[in-house]
Amino acid sequence: MANRLFRKKSVEQILSDSESHGSGLAKILGVRDLVSLGIAAIVGAGIFSTIGLASYNGGPAVSLLFVFVAFACVFTALSYAQFASTVPVSGSAYTYAYVAFGELFAWIIGWALVLEYAVSNMVVAISWSQYFVSMCEGFGIHIPRWLTMAPAYASEAYAKMQEVGEENLSGIDKIGLQAFETAPRIAGFPIIFDLPAGLITVFVTWLVYIGIKESRRASNIMVVIKIGVILAVIFGGLFFVKPENWTPFAPKGLGGVLSGVAAVFFAFIGFDSISTTAEECKNPQRDLPKAMIYCLVICAVLYVAITLVLTGMVNYSELNVKDPLAYVFHYVGFDQMAGIISVTSVIAITSALLVFQLAQPRIWMTMSRDGLLSKKFAKIHPKYKTPSYATIVTGFVVAVPALFMKMDFFVDLTSVGTFFAFILVCGGVLYMDHSGLSEKSKFKVPYVNGKYVVGIGFIVGLVLLYLYGQDGLSEWRTLGTKQVILHKSLVVVFWGTWFVMSIFSFKNNFSLLPVMGILINLYLMSELGASNWLIFIIWLVIGLVIYFMYGYRHSKLNSVKE
């Protein structure tokens, strides 16, 4: 059984499988299109919403966190690029894990990618709805409150009103109570749902369904618009920057800066999604590596610049708002720019929704080709040349929860699944180097021998921890065993992994950059809450049940002679 669980697919076998299915996908994407799709995915809900919370927690120093996270993503992007040049098919990290680690890990990664794409799109759809409703109100169009939110918001607001009184409600609670009181009722039960979130998901799913060319065209237009407005924010905001707002630079210390890890990382999620379009690229082995690096560098520069401008225009303590870009211009009295930003944020989030909705069906299509999902998921539409059934299912999977569910905690949960995938992709490059598979790669992660560097870095890290981390070490001494397991276990895993990687790097001359990708991603993971990890583990257990009930028995590798 163990042999079956960890059987790998060869590169030749994967390429042969992709060529033998139907008439194939339309190959029309070049570097510019891929960069556009990457920017469309990255510059979305993160830059227009979560950047405010990160700045509120970390102050101006959060700009350095953007640099740090971008640094981690570059190492990961290089690893993705090497795999993409070696295995130029749809499937992203799922396919790469099949080559490097075997079927069970491939399934786990594929299941984790559902979190990154489908589940994060639920959050993006709900975020889009909030901006859309605000934009409509700016034009004097008022949508009934019971059509604009999840039922949980309204019921929680009603319960809170009974406890503290209506006069003590504010913000979302006040709006939620209004929805609860004005909603039509069936048998006394209020009918409340988020109609805009559902409608935008249906529209984007239709766009993705009818073709990659139409999706490309729509994405390119939206990217040009939102990048133009972001540049306008940066250069326009410079005139309102007050350098004294940058002091203190890190008002809440390192802990405050790192508390924004999930929000900042969520702002970068998406650069890997372009690897799912490999079969629709004109020259994937050349273009995918370039596109990943280009879009990461562009977005990192934009994020750092816009963070410094925001925290320079207003004090960091004013930025705990859902629409920070529009808010800062309202704050300085430039209402025209604030209005433009409100409209553009709707466009920006739409483009991010489009790219993720484009990526998820291609993951399922690839898993279906391997027999791990029903054959219907691999069906290619004869006219539109898209994975039609998988696209429709993705639409339902995203639209229905977006209509009815409160999804706030999924920002952190999405990050957990993505970190997990990133670490395995970086580890997969080490496997490729060790097994000789890298010889088939048309693009390779630049090799820097980590024989001594990884171990020396581990020792330096321990010394720095001892010299500058006494506050953290003192906290550890006050924790019981149960608290350490619940809240600090990932920190232990991080240091343990670094120690093990030091040994293996010394023995096997590991390439330094993938090792750094593993360690930085693992460190960022350790900053996420334990509750997110518990939910993620439950999610993986559900995935394993599905795998053993269907995928294990129907895998195409079952017909391959051992």
What shape does the CA trace take? globular
- Strand share of the residues? under 5%
Order of the strands making up the biggest sheet:
1-2
CATH superfamily of the largest domain: Amino acid/polyamine transporter I
Question: Any idea what the radius of gyration is?
Answer: 24 Å
User: Strand tally, please?
Assistant: 2
Count of domains: 3
Counting H and I runs of at least 4 residues, what is the number of helices? Answer: 24
GO molecular function: amino acid transmembrane transporter activity
Subcellular location: Membrane
Membrane topology: Multi-pass membrane protein
Domain Cationic amino acid transporter C-terminal: 512-555
Please render the helix and strand layout as text.
Elements: H1 2-5, H2 11-19, H3 31-42, H4 45-58, H5 62-86, H6 92-100, H7 103-138, H8 151-164, H9 171-182, E1 185-186, E2 189-190, H10 195-210, H11 212-237, H12 253-258, H13 261-268, H14 284-313, H15 324-331, H16 335-369, H17 388-404, H18 410-435, H19 453-468, H20 470-478, H21 481-487, H22 489-508, H23 512-526, H24 530-554
Antiparallel strand pairs: 1-2
Helix pairs in contact: 3-11, 3-14, 3-16, 4-13, 5-13, 5-14, 5-18, 5-23, 6-7, 6-18, 7-10, 7-16, 7-17, 7-18, 7-24, 8-9, 10-16, 10-17, 11-14, 11-16, 13-18, 15-16, 16-17, 18-23, 18-24, 19-22, 22-23
Membrane topology: Multi-pass membrane protein
Protein name: Amino acid permease
Keywords: Membrane, Transmembrane, Transmembrane helix, Transport
